[in-house]
Design brief:
Number of strands: 9
Number of helices: 1
Helix content: 25-40%
Shape: globular
Order of helices and strands: HEEEEEEEEE
Largest sheet: 7 strands, antiparallel
């Protein structure tokens, strides 16, 4: 009985640590996103962007990619989980028709690796314009 109690306590401790780490990562991602979007106001939803006209992407946590063009920021949501979406990884976009669009696929390449991750998908883009002073 004592062994079962210890096993349950250890399992609960590991689960709690995992949840805390996830929340901590989520909090950091939210802070990074807020910092990147500071001084900008949310605009319209955009289906596609021209990859030749934007800088980026900047990876924000496991949830978004940010592209920049002349002060405007385009936030691309990610469809579904994309565990390889981490700062420092290189984004490899599959571009069809010359634009990055909602539902397009991309992969990530970690530094020092030769094989890219599994595919992830882009959600729609949201435009963030600089606040007029």
């Amino acid at each position: 009985m004592r062994r079962l109690s210890l096993a349950l306590a250890a399992t609960a401790l590991v689960a709690t640590a995992g949840i805390a780490a996830t929340r901590s990562g989520d909090d950091q991602g939210q802070r990074d996103l807020a910092k990147a979007l500071a001084g900008h106001v949310e605009g319209k939803a955009v289906e596609c962007i021209d990859p030749k006209m934007v800088d980026g992407p900047q990876i924000i946590d496991h949830t978004a990619l940010l592209y920049r063009r002349a002060g405007t920021i385009y936030k691309a949501k990610i469809i579904g989980p994309c565990p390889s979406l981490e700062e420092g990884n290189t984004v490899i976009n599959d571009i069809y028709g010359g634009q990055l669009c909602r539902n397009d696929k991309f992969r990530l390449l970690a530094p020092g690796e030769h094989i890219p991750s599994a595919y992830c998908r882009l959600g729609g883009f949201t435009e963030y314009k600089p606040v007029k002073k």
